[in-house]
Write a structure and sequence with these properties.
mainly alpha; 2 domains; two-stranded parallel sheet; 8 helices; about 10% strand
């Protein structure tokens, strides 16, 4: 989409809520749009994002045109997620070419709950302590964050590589099972029409 619509003034900016710069660099190889790093997850707080992937449409005036939505940038994980990107891409083309927004663009996304805010604060503190070499302190705060927001992938799953766990390993699939059993809660727009 970035390349296709560049001449129309459209651009994509990706934000990795990660601190493994080299791993993100490998994933970003060949990508023509900027990929930023947000190791402190400030973006997830600013836009009330609890799970990824999330896409926010921002217009040329810096205003949110469509709040965070559960969308994918490719069909690479369709078999795993049941979600496709075609309908979303069509909505973007329509917006860029005729300034038409989808019906859900006016959706109101509630602020993060007190527990979600506290979980993010614990996560940030844990990440800081980990970088400072205090693994025990980091573990306590990662645990506190997970207790407060057990189905928030931007907290629980994001902590996995920082704790030496695989974000696609056995523990992730246990969390994913709980997430799906709870109805796949997503803090934002969850467009059901994008399922395969």
């Amino acid at each position: 989409m970035h390349d296709e619509l560049a001449d129309d003034g459209f651009g994509v900016i990706a934000v990795a809520i990660d601190e493994a710069i080299e791993e993100v660099r490998v994933l970003a190889e060949g990508i023509t749009y900027p990929v930023l790093m947000d190791p402190d997850h400030l973006l997830t707080e600013l836009y009330a994002i609890s799970n990824v992937p999330a896409v926010v449409w921002i217009d040329q005036h810096g205003r949110i045109a469509r709040p965070n939505a559960y969308e994918f940038g490719s069909d690479l994980l369709t078999e795993f997620t049941g979600r496709t990107c075609g309908a979303h891409f069509d909505q973007i083309r329509e917006w860029v070419h005729s300034d038409a927004l989808p019906e859900d663009a006016g959706s109101s996304i509630p602020d993060l709950s007190e527990e979600e805010v506290a979980a993010r604060l614990h996560f940030r503190l844990a990440a800081h302590l980990r970088r400072a070499g205090d693994e025990a302190g980091a573990a306590r705060h990662f645990d506190a964050a997970a207790q407060l927001a057990p189905l928030d992938f931007t907290v629980v799953r994001a902590a996995m590589p920082l704790r030496g766990e695989s974000p696609f390993g056995e523990e992730f699939f246990k969390i994913l099972e709980k997430f799906e059993a709870a109805g796949s809660p997503f803090h934002g727009i969850d467009p059901a029409q994008n399922t395969a």
